[in-house]
Amino acid sequence: MLIFKDKTTLAAYLKSLRRQGKKIGFVPTMGALHEGHLSLMKEASTHADVVICSIFVNPTQFNDRKDFEKYPIRREDDIKKLLGSPTELLFLPSVEEIYGPNTVNLETYDFGKIEKMLEGVHRPGHFQGVGQVMRRLLELIQPEVLLMGQKDYQQVLIINTLINILKINAQLIICPIVREPDGLAMSSRNLRLTEEARRKASGIYQTLVYIKDNYRRSPFDKLVKKGINFLEKQGFQVEYLTIANSRDLQVVNKPVSSPMICLAAAWLDGIRLIDNVFL
Ligand code: AMP
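^ thats the input. predicted complex w/ adenosine monophosphate below
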């Protein structure tokens, strides 16, 4: 596996790949890699000739400075995991390499209503930061295929909008959520859970499954209320638990014809966890 830290060398290498007619699959990550990330690399290899992964903890998407500072960094372990995956090239830039001397007064995007809901309410500015880093990565790498996880479902909708705004020619593939045996969605932040919190953390998934199993016979508002009560009893502080139309994330109160998704975000022992399931 090749590791590039600067854009110029990467761009030159990508040019030579393109001359050979190679199709590029790109998986952007923030590192502390787990099986969820690796499933994206594996999927990428079925669509592309060369799989490129980036590891970059993007400061502009963290609305909470402490969350940024505490974000787990596991570079050696990440590289070991990538060596056992189909990844051929790892891009490992510094903040300066991506943004230049500072990260102030960057461009902004009009992502429409989706930006202001759910994650957008609780993490103001988060999706602008996601847009800023993804524009830079996509314009540099110009992948034919971009792979992202359903785990961050709202982010997928934002990136889909970004691709349309920038007229980027990449196919966006959404990959299913990889879970721990007890149902907890794999996440780099899980590393920060205490043993006790880790035992309770699958409560989010249990709640989502309960709603999925019962939405046909129970009013949505009742189900959501019950879900929130259950989570609060377990010690979660719930930011949102919502049943929404998966196209635009508008809350729905009864079944609609387009696919519905139940999404949750909750804090447990100082760690923010998110998850979702399609109904
Ligand atoms: P992150 O490193 O958290 O920014 O995630 C990088 C990519 O991996 C994003 O597209 C995530 O949605 C995806 N991802 C994170 N966790 C999982 C998971 N448990 N299963 C599948 N994909 C995931």
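Residues 29-30, 36-37, 39-40, 148-149, 151-152, 175, 177-178, 185-188 surround adenosine monophosphate (CB under 6 Å).
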